[in-house]
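Comment thread on ticket #2218

A.B. wrote:
> Attaching the input chain for the structure job we discussed in standup.
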Amino acid sequence: MKVGKCRNLAKFLNQMTRNNIELQRRFLHEGPDTVEELLERHIVKKEKSNDDEEDEISTRRRLTSTRREALSLYRDILRATRFFMWPDSRGVIWCDVLRENARKEFEDARFEKDPEIITRLIIGGRDAVQSAIDKLVEKQREQVEKERRDRDRR
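C.D. wrote:
> Ran it. Output below, let me know if you need it in another format.
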């Protein structure tokens, strides 16, 4: 039985060798057996390469950097609020009001994924903290000057 299969295979190979041109034509025009093979042959595959890994690493770095920036901003806000120790119209100390508002703003933006929006929020927060500190310093200067003038008049 095995000998018969081998003879048949040998005859087939000899015949194919003689008809080499026909064999090449047949392989050129032989179509895929399944739809998957067809798609595999004709669809350009995006291979996972080092570029993809590098893109992933840079994305992680950017996210880590953004998180660091956000945490740094939050800490700066908490540090800056220490200087606001007077009460508002309701009798609540401004320091507590500002900290609550900062916490609320950060919680609202916690799950934001768009890097452009995150960057805008961080830049806006930095600008707000800086302007609040600048206004505080200016008001304190005015207060000190006013006290000096009052002392000089006496």
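A.B. wrote:
> Thanks. Noting for the ticket: The CA atoms of residues 66 and 72 lie 10 Å apart.
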